[in-house]
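Hey,
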Amino acid sequence: MTFLSAALDRVKPSATIAMTARAAALRAEGRDVIGLAAGEPDFDTPDHIRDAGMAAIRSGRTRYTGVDGMPELKRAIANKFRRDNNLRYDPGEITVGSGGKQVLFNALVATLDPGDEVVIPAPYWTSYPDMVRLAGGTAVMVETRPEQGFRMGADELDAAITDRTKWVILNSPSNPTGAAYGDGDLARLATVLLRHPHVWVLSDDIYEHLLFDDRRFATMAAVEPRLRERTLTVNGVSKAYAMTGWRIGYGGGPETLIRAMAKVQSQSTSNPCSISQWAAVAALDGPQDFIDSSRKAFQRRRDLVVERLGRMHGLTCPRPDGAFYVYPSIEGCLGLTSAEGRAIRTDVEFCEALLEETGVAVVPGAAFGRSPAFRLSYATDEDTLVAACERIGAFCEGLR
């Protein structure tokens, strides 16, 4: 008889965290390591947001708040949804969690029964299928292709839906590919969803403000208002506001769902950190101009990395629409051997050899449901990216 839950057998540890930890271990041994595995902006949290957090501490705003967020933050979130997305949510239709991941997890735990299915386009963020499995559901993967811009089409969605489908997860721009769904893309998916009234939409918009080449952001509940009452629109302050460690995510959706999610949260973490909540109010209600500066910096970095990786032996690197990742194919490297004699049969072996031989940490595509590829985060300065690309290029040239 085992002491541990059988549910743990259904999930895998985060590959991103595992690669980051391996890179940290090598660095602790004195190795020169460039970590491009984690999805974390390298910019500091803006001063006015940090000041709001410190003011909250000094003024004693350190008590419990409402389980799923304080009224002041819910009002700021409602204003943000109205200002940026043309979506109107009352405070009772808004939830706040300790990061976007908790909001997603709460929704799945509150709604899934054994056998319920969740449609997930692949490549996908590593946590989606494992959260579904922990909640007792079944993850149904829909493979997307680079020639489609890694976007799921209406026919593919329709084919994946069954009587047991409860959710479809849309992440735009996407982690790991940076693919973004425009108005037209979402309208075509909405046509399918309107024919299947038992299917809800989980729209993960965390990279909303990181769209390139003058693309306009689109989200399902705004594109098709008839789906508003079965859509949970999830966002957070981590990426756009460089607040990953503050751990504030939020969602807007039907009040019945929001109340159920609050019930889950009341028996797990209770309220998110009060100090972080006040900082998030300052983020959402305060100046927004720095977001555009960050976006332009990420676009320059994208162009640099795509151009350099695209010239490397064995790699093919699609140009992402947004976020801060590239997802190059390594198909041309399979079956070869590294300069130090490591066989490259999979993207996992490619990434392990790359880290051990060059000190560059990236995440294998197997973690995201589509191989052979790897995810590289360009959320770091250009000098570091140039150095990393030089090492990756030398590694690829050394394959025989």
